[in-house]
Amino acid sequence: MSTPSPAPVAAMAGGAGGGKGKGDAPTTIQPIRTLATPTAQAVRHTHPVLLLSLLLLRFKALVADPVPTMCSALPVLAAVQVAYAVACLPPAGSQQQQGAKGAAARKRKPGSDASGPNVVVTALVALVLSALATLALLAAFVLLGAPLLTHLPHTALCAAHLSVLALFPVLYARGLDGRAWLAVLGAAAPLDEAFGGLAGAVVGAWLGAVPIPLDWDRDWQRWPVTVLCGVFAGYALGKLVGGSPLAFGRRFGGAGSD
């Protein structure tokens, strides 16, 4: 009878970008490939449409009362992102598991079975890490000029949405692989859906802040409505571009992955 992975958190630490064993040369960080199942392909194409539709449905409420609207939307967003990650992305550590599969199969006793990373535990750990990352994003927002004393709930919830939307898929697929995260944070990782979505969300948040100080006197210019809209739009666009055949595996600067 098969047993679950004894150390799912260790798999998260290993990440999906590959590492190096004893005596091995360092491996190149590879893009995250979406699963090839029909369900995964259907979900990955409908996922951006669903996210933007949810934003449009709640836009008026977001403008009228941002804090309660973002509070009620956050669990829904988390559920959507968990479903997308489980259906479409390989969990952290799965690539190492596949790489060692041949050798393990030769040593395995008849009737035994090897199990990969537990997707449920991986998703839960990634959610916890996303919640912790919200604090870092909150600090980054404040350092970049976001209101803290007068709009702390607004800023914190905006940071939470950015973390769950854009960081969670990368955490789910790459875990805590230090080399991979250095490449991601340095914009040197190969493009894929997860990294493309993260890059697009960050750029979208920055562009979304542009209309706020303009003297248009519109209700939707309130903090953080335009920033949150930019996060969603940028994530959807970046995800589509990163997963496209023309951009997948390429790096900023035009280099492709090995």
Roughly what fraction of the amino acids lie in strands? under 5%
Approximate helicity band? 55-70%
User: Which segments are poorly predicted (pLDDT under 50) over 5 or more consecutive residues?
Assistant: 1-7, 16-26, 100-106, 108-114
Q: Which outline best applies?
A: globular
How many H/I helices?
Answer: 11
Mean pLDDT across residues: 86
User: Rg to the nearest angstrom?
Assistant: 20 Å
Q: What is the H/E string?
A: HHHHHHHHHHH
What is the SS-derived class?
mainly alpha
Note the main sheet.
none
SS elements, strand count: 0
User: In whole angstroms, how far apart are the ends?
Assistant: 39 Å
Structure commentary:
The chain has 258 residues and is mainly α. It has 11 helices and no strands. The protein has helices at 8-14, 38-57, 59-64, 66-88, 94-99, 101-107, 119-143, 152-174, 178-185, 193-208, 225-242. α1 packs across α7. The radius of gyration is 20 Å and the shape is globular. The relative contact order is 0.16.
Keywords:
258 residues, mainly alpha, 62% helix, globular, disordered N terminus, GPI-anchor biosynthesis, endoplasmic reticulum
What does this entry show, briefly?
By secondary structure, the chain is mostly helical.
Topology diagram in text:
Blueprint: H1 8-14, H2 38-57, H3 59-64, H4 66-88, H5 94-99, H6 101-107, H7 119-143, H8 152-174, H9 178-185, H10 193-208, H11 225-242
Helix pairs in contact: 1-7, 2-4, 2-11, 4-7, 4-8, 7-8, 8-10, 8-11, 10-11
Biased composition (Low complexity): 93-103
Protein name: Glycosylphosphatidylinositol (GPI) anchor assembly protein
GO biological process, one term: GPI anchor biosynthetic process
